[in-house]
TrEMBL record:
The keyword Transcription regulation applies. Pfam families: Response_reg (PF00072), Trans_reg_C (PF00486). It comes from Candidatus Caccousia stercoris. The lineage of its organism: Bacteria, Bacillati, Bacillota, Clostridia, Eubacteriales. This is Stage 0 sporulation protein A homolog. Keywords: DNA-binding, Phosphoprotein, Transcription, Transcription regulation, Two-component regulatory system. May play the central regulatory role in sporulation. It may be an element of the effector pathway responsible for the activation of sporulation genes in response to nutritional stress. Spo0A may act in concert with spo0H (a sigma factor) to control the expression of some genes that are critical to the sporulation process. Residues 2-116 form the Response regulatory domain. Residues 124-221 bind DNA.
Length: 221
């Protein structure tokens, strides 16, 4: 899952970015309203975390413009402004959630999970496919109920496959949703993570559930 953070407090931005990265998300950062808006339009994000008091363009303005272009993109407002009027404006403009600063990182993480699960119309935080299960809250995978030790990246790739079973997924799509904008989509690192994941799945299942369609992408079944 790929998240865009739009926040001008550098220290908070870095802390959030680090924290979410450890939770297995691909995270990109923007420090001004216009930069954040442009990135959200140009790139494929699963969720945007948006500050309101931003330089050059206010968060509410970013939200309003963004919602005209991408109405389905979930936006979570993270702001020190706890006035009811501001919160209501945020929701009216299409925000999915509003968390006031100061906040606990674990609460932000939980709210992000809820929004992402809602986005994919998940009824539960447990993704299951045959013998494989993935707990999106605990960030843990299992085969036949036995823990399958995966790195954060491998887990993120598996999560994306489980949310899109039986569908052809290109390498580019995996890059867009699992990696952040700094990654080179043609680097070997994607293949390395994917191949490590496939090896682990094959060892646990006795077969590789990911099929390669040469020149097109991958199908999980
Ligand atoms: Ca701010």
């Amino acid at each position: 899952m790929r998240i865009l953070l739009i926040e001008d407090e550098k220290e908070l931005l870095l802390d959030l970015s680090r924290g979410l990265h450890l939770k297995g998300y691909a995270v990109d950062q923007a420090e001004t309203g216009p930069a954040g808006y442009q990135m959200a339009i140009d790139e494929e994000y699963d969720l945007v975390v948006l500050d309101l008091n931003l330089p050059e363009m206010s968060g509410l303005e970013v939200l309003s413009r963004l919602k005209q272009e991408k109405p389905a993109l979930p936006v979570l407002i993270l702001s020190a402004n706890h006035q009811l009027e501001t919160k209501l404006s945020g929701f009216e403009l299409g925000a999915s959630d509003y968390l006031t600063k100061p906040f606990h990182f674990e609460e932000l993480d939980a709210r992000i999970r809820v929004l992402l699960n809602r986005k994919f119309i998940q009824q539960t935080h447990l993704l299951q496919h045959g013998r494989i299960s993935l707990d999106t809250f605990r960030r843990a995978a299992a085969v036949d109920g036995n823990p399958l030790p995966l790195t954060a990246k491998e887990l993120a790739i598996l999560e994306y496959f489980l949310l899109h079973e039986e569908r052809l997924i290109s390498q580019q799509e995996i890059v867009e949703h699992v990696w952040n904008g700094d990654s080179d989509p043609f680097s070997n690192s994607i293949r390395v993570h994917l191949s490590a994941l496939r090896k682990k799945l094959k060892a646990a299942l006795g077969y590789d559930p990911i099929r390669t369609k040469i020149g097109e992408g991958y199908i999980f079944s």
